[in-house]
Amino acid sequence: MSLIQAKTPPGVMELLPRDQIAFQHFLDTIRRGYERFGFLPVETPVFETVDVLLTKTGGETEKQIYFVQSTGSLQQAKAPELALRFDLTVPLARYVAEHEHDLAFPFRRYQIQRVYRGERAQKGRFREFYQCDIDVIGKDSLPVAYDAEMPAVIYHVFRELNVGGFTINFNNRKLLAGLFENFSLEDGERRKLALREIDKMDKIGRDKVIDSLTGGDIALDRDLAVRLLDAIGLTGSNAEIVAALEAMPGDSELFHQGLSELKAVLEGLRALQVPEEFVKINPAIARGLDYYTGTVYETFLNDFPGVGSVCSGGRYDNLASHYTKSKLPGVGISIGATRLFYQLKEAGVIKADRSTSAVLVTQLDPSLSADYLAIAADLRAAGINTEVQFEASKIAKQLKYADRAGIRFAVLMGTDEQARGTVTLKDLTKAEQHDVPRAELAERVRGLL
Amino acid sequence: MSLIQAKTPPGVMELLPRDQIAFQHFLDTIRRGYERFGFLPVETPVFETVDVLLTKTGGETEKQIYFVQSTGSLQQAKAPELALRFDLTVPLARYVAEHEHDLAFPFRRYQIQRVYRGERAQKGRFREFYQCDIDVIGKDSLPVAYDAEMPAVIYHVFRELNVGGFTINFNNRKLLAGLFENFSLEDGERRKLALREIDKMDKIGRDKVIDSLTGGDIALDRDLAVRLLDAIGLTGSNAEIVAALEAMPGDSELFHQGLSELKAVLEGLRALQVPEEFVKINPAIARGLDYYTGTVYETFLNDFPGVGSVCSGGRYDNLASHYTKSKLPGVGISIGATRLFYQLKEAGVIKADRSTSAVLVTQLDPSLSADYLAIAADLRAAGINTEVQFEASKIAKQLKYADRAGIRFAVLMGTDEQARGTVTLKDLTKAEQHDVPRAELAERVRGLL
Question: What processes does the entry annotate via GO biological process terms (chains A, B) (predicted)?
Answer without folding.
Answer: histidyl-tRNA aminoacylation
